[in-house]
User: Fold this.
Amino acid sequence: MYCKVRVADSSLAPALGAKDMKELPVRANCFDASALVKVFSDEEASEIIREFFNNHAPTRYTTAFCFYEALSVLKVKWLYRKEIDENTYRESAFRLTAWYARTLTSTKDIDFYDPNVFHRVRALAEKYVIDLSDAFQIESVKSGYFAHFVDESSTLLVTADKRLSEVAREEGIKVWYFLTDPIPN
Assistant:
């Protein structure tokens, strides 16, 4: 059954990231580092992902790996590629960190230090020749806090990483590769 939530109180809409009376699917939306960087800094497709992040994804989270990876990408954009100035870097990193700190209070991720988890992650990384960070992301969606959601309510992995989107789909994960795919319902 497709579940939706209705936001009737306009004072709740900003907290949920939704507009007044907007019907949204009840599902978790897991943002990888490529998506987070585009949400919190100005890049190609930032408008698309920000619109989704702010107005269509009431339950948003990321993994610790993706949070730190996004911070590293922002640092590279500032210090090495000179794509953003120091002020933009600090503002983007601050907003990302503030958002991530809020999500930590409501979500619990898989235990990245558990030998069984690492074994599954390593097997994924070797099977598909992907990096461990992407494999942890897939494992988090498959067996993490929101893994019990099914069908239309199953977690949506949001990414601008084409290879990650392909592997995640191969693993049965619902994915939005927002650089080319239409916005999901």
Summary: The chain has eight helices and six strands. The helical segments are 13-16, 33-40, 46-55, 64-79, 86-104, 115-128, 132-143, 162-170.
